[in-house]
Design goal:
mainly beta, 7-stranded mixed sheet, 3-stranded antiparallel sheet, 1 helix, 5% helix
């Protein structure tokens, strides 16, 4: 698994790079991730926030997460591709959507979170229950 990661949006106008944060990669089944991605879950890779750099029409949408704290969803304001998620709970990292990485082939989820919110048609994606 590479330490330095890069990625971007579908239209190519937003590019980002960062150093991989030493924390588990995971699938998130929370309702916010379902609504933001239009799928049953998000595939997330932790990145070191202090190393995160982004260029292009990157927009951030702030919302209240299930914890009651703010979460932030980053996306391309032109094509709408979901790129990142961030939470006040983990202020030292930002999570990239695995599919937004230039090479997502090495991604392997180590756990699933908010599995109680998983949709019945998305159960095959539950790796393990936690959170």
């Amino acid at each position: 698994m590479p330490d330095q990661l890069s990625g971007g949006c579908k239209c190519g106008q937003v590019r980002f790079q960062a150093v991989r944060f030493d924390a588990p990669m995971f699938r998130c089944h929370c309702r916010d991730c379902q609504q933001l991605t239009g799928t049953g879950h998000s595939e997330m890779v932790p990145l070191d926030l202090s190393s995160f750099a982004v260029n292009g029409p990157y927009k951030i949408y702030e919302m209240q997460g299930r914890s009651g704290r703010s979460t932030f969803s980053g996306f391309c304001s032109d094509c709408g591709s979901q790129l990142t998620r961030r939470s006040e709970r983990s202020s030292d990292r930002i999570y990239a959507h695995a599919s937004s990485l230039d090479d997502p082939s090495w991604y392997k989820p180590e756990r699933s979170i908010y599995t109680d919110a998983a949709q019945p048609w998305d159960q095959a994606s539950v790796v393990e229950s936690s959170l």
